[in-house]
Amino acid sequence: MGKKKQVDDSIIPIDIAPSDPGYLRASRKKITKQEAQRLRSLKLTAPCFLDNIPCRARSKRRVTRKKSTSKLKNKLDSGSFECYLETLWSRLPADKRDLFTRLDCQWFAWYRKASYREKVLSWVKRKEIFSTKYVLVPIVCWGHWSLLIFCHFGESLQSKTRTPCILLLDSLQMSDPLRLEADIRRFMFDIYKAKGRPENKRMIYQVPLLVPKVPQQRNGKECGNFVLYFINLFVKSAPENFNINDYPYFMKNDWFNAEAVERFCERLHFGM
């Protein structure tokens, strides 16, 4: 991995309804008292950067299944997530990887901070994001991981055959994934602007933002593992030409079970 950028990665809650009326807003969803209590129990407001799982070469010593499983139950910090993602990415078929561009897991969080916004856009500008079918953007906000996917990012927004769209995969949908909509659309618009594209904010608003009903996590620590598994399965199964008429494809609530995530993460922890 390259040299780590020295950036303050503390997560500060930011209002997603900015004062600038020109930016697109996301509507807030009311939740019941029971849902609110469950959210508090999952401690979503606590950062996911408390437990560091070192990513290192497999030890020659025998490690019990119980010990390895206990490590996998820790929350993933951004460094561990990127390390595991590098391992995962190297094991995926090359022809599948070629359909994707992926962004660093901290870039979206940094973009949401005005002081880092231009820097992040300069990093994104160096990426060939318009030449691949999909752009993967792992997100960690408010201590919770989710996966943003831009489909046909480089196509015209008026295309009828390859319609650009946005997927947001979240293993805790009761937390209202669409609270990030305004920031996602602003991010999309600023990328187009940085790349010299003609799309305006009205056109960005017309791009479908889809939140498929994917399998849900069972506690407050699994979100990072779920995002890694989302990436693993999506890259392997994504069609070469995503058609919005065939949505949600394989992304349904029975896509996989929690045990499959555990087995996947255990393999990933030991280099697959």
Q: Helical stretch count?
A: 10
Number of strands: 5
CATH architecture: 3-Layer(aba) Sandwich
Mean pLDDT: 81
* Oligomer kind: single chain
Question: How are strands sequenced across the largest beta sheet?
Answer: 1-2-3-4-5
Q: In CATH, what is the homologous superfamily?
A: Adenoviral Proteinase, Chain A
Tell me the Rg in angstroms.
18 Å
Distance, first to last CA: 18 Å
The largest pleated sheet is described as: 5 strands, mixed
The shape, in one word, is globular
Overall tally of structural domains: 1
From the helix content, strand content and strand pairing, which structural class follows? alpha/beta
Give the H and E element order. HHHHEHHEEEHHEHH
The first-level CATH class is given as Alpha Beta
Residue runs with pLDDT of under 50 for 5 or more positions: 7-29, 42-71
CATH topology: Adenoviral Proteinase, Chain
Pfam families: Peptidase_C48 (PF02902)
GO molecular function, one term: cysteine-type peptidase activity
Keywords: Hydrolase, Protease, Thiol protease
Protein name: Probable ubiquitin-like-specific protease 2A isoform X2
